[in-house]
Specification:
By secondary structure, the protein is an alpha/beta fold. The chain has one domain: Alpha-Beta Barrel (TIM Barrel), CATH 3.20.20.70. It has twelve helices and eight strands. The longest helix has 17 residues.
C-alpha cells in the first residue's frame, strides 16, 4: 500500500516565514508529474516543530484536493503527548489524510512499554492507517524490533519508517515482522539497499530535489533490478549527503528554491543555508544531474 518514493515534502514559505499556499499547489503538481509515489505533509523536512496545527490542516486539506487520491497522502500527527497525538490525528484525518505518520515521543524518552502503549492508544483512536516513525537521532528514544513486533499485531498499524540508517536493523525488522508490516527507509543513502533486502520504499528527503530519479531508483529496486538500482543510487549519493550539510531541511529548502519552485522562507531557529553550504549543495545537485533554474 505504501511503497516507492514517498517525499517528505518541504513546506514552502515566503521570506517572512508565512506558508506560501500558491507554491504548495505548484509543488504538488510537480511531484505528480515527476512520478513521486506518495506525499508526507509536516514531517521533519516539512518543519513540523514550527508549523502550527492549523497550518498543517490547511496544507493537508489542499493536498487532498489537489492529489485527488492519485497517490497516498500521509500527514505527520505524532507528538510527545499521547492525547495530543490522538487529537491531531483526528483533525488531519478530517482534512483528508489517507494515513498518519507518528514519530516516537521525543524529549520525555518513554520506555519500550510506554512506546507500545502510546502507539496502541493512537491506533485505537485512529480511523486511518498508522505508520510508525523511528528516528532516534532526533527523538532520543529508539523503537526496538521486539516492540515493533508487538505493535504489528494491531490492524491499523501498517508500516514503519525506520530512520536509523542501519541495514542490520532493517534486516532484523524484516525478519521479525516483514509479513505483518511494510517497512520504509527513512535514510536516503541506504534506501536502495534496504529495498533490495525487502523494504517497500523510502520516505525521502532527496525526492524533494530529484523526484524522478528517486522514483526510478525505487522502481528498479522493488523490481529486483539490483544493478540498475545501484547505478542510479551511485549518481545520487553526493546529493543524499549534500542535503545534510546543515540541519535538514535547511539545505533541501535552498535547493528547491534554486529549482525555481518556491521562495526562500524558513522559520527560526532554522536559518538560511550558509554561503559555504550553498557551494556544497550546488555542486551536489550538478553531480546528480539536477539543473538549477538560477
Amino acid at each position: 500500500m505504501y511503497s516507492g518514493s514517498i517525499v517528505a515534502i518541504v513546506t514552502p514559505m515566503v521570506e517572512s516565514g508565512e506558508v506560501d499556499f500558491h507554491a504548495w499547489d505548484a509543488l504538488l503538481d510537480w511531484h505528480l508529474a515527476a512520478g513521486t509515489d506518495g506525499i508526507v505533509v509536516a514531517g521533519t523536512t516539512g518543519e513540523s516543530p514550527t508549523v502550527s496545527l492549523d497550518e498543517v490542516v490547511e496544507l493537508t486539506r489542499r493536498a487532498a484536493a489537489r492529489l485527488g487520491g492519485r497517490i497516498p497522502l500521509i500527514a505527520g500527527s505524532g507528538t510527545n503527548d499521547t492525547a495530543g497525538s490522538i487529537a491531531r490525528t483526528r483533525r488531519l484525518t478530517e482534512a483528508g489524510a489517507d494515513a498518519v505518520l507518528a514519530v516516537t515521543p521525543y524529549y520525555n524518552k518513554p520506555t519500550q512499554e510506554g512506546l507500545f502503549q502510546h502507539f496502541t492508544a493512537l491506533a485505537e483512536e485512529s480511523s486511518v492507517p498508522v505508520i510508525l516513525y523511528n528516528v532516534p537521532s532526533r527523538t532520543g528514544v529508539d523503537l526496538l524490533p521486539a516492540t515493533v513486533a508487538r505493535l504489528a499485531a494491531h490492524p491499523r498499524i501498517v508500516a514503519l519508517k525506520e530512520a536509523t540508517g542501519s541495514l542490520g536493523r532493517m534486516q532484523a525488522l524484516l525478519d521479525c515482522c516483514g509479513e505483518e508490516l511494510e517497512f520504509l527507509s527513512g535514510d536516503d543513502p541506504t534506501a536502495a539497499e534496504a529495498m533490495l533486502a525487502g523494504a517497500s520504499g523510502v520516505i525521502s528527503v532527496t525526492a524533494n530535489v530529484a523526484p524522478r530519479a528517486m522514483h526510478e531508483l525505487c522502481a528498479a529496486a522493488l523490481a529486483g533490478n539490483a544493478a540498475r538500482a545501484r547505478e542510479l543510487d551511485g549518481k545520487l549519493q553526493v546529493l543524499h549527503s549534500g542535503l545534510f550539510v546543515e540541519s535538514n531541511p535547511i539545505a533541501t529548502k535552498w535547493a528547491v528554491e534554486q529549482l525555481g519552485l518556491m521562495r526562500g522562507g524558513i522559520r527560526l531557529p532554522l536559518t538560511r543555508l550558509s554561503a559555504d553550504g550553498q557551494i556544497t549543495v550546488r555542486e551536489a545537485m550538478r553531480a546528480a544531474g539536477v539543473e538549477c533554474a538560477h
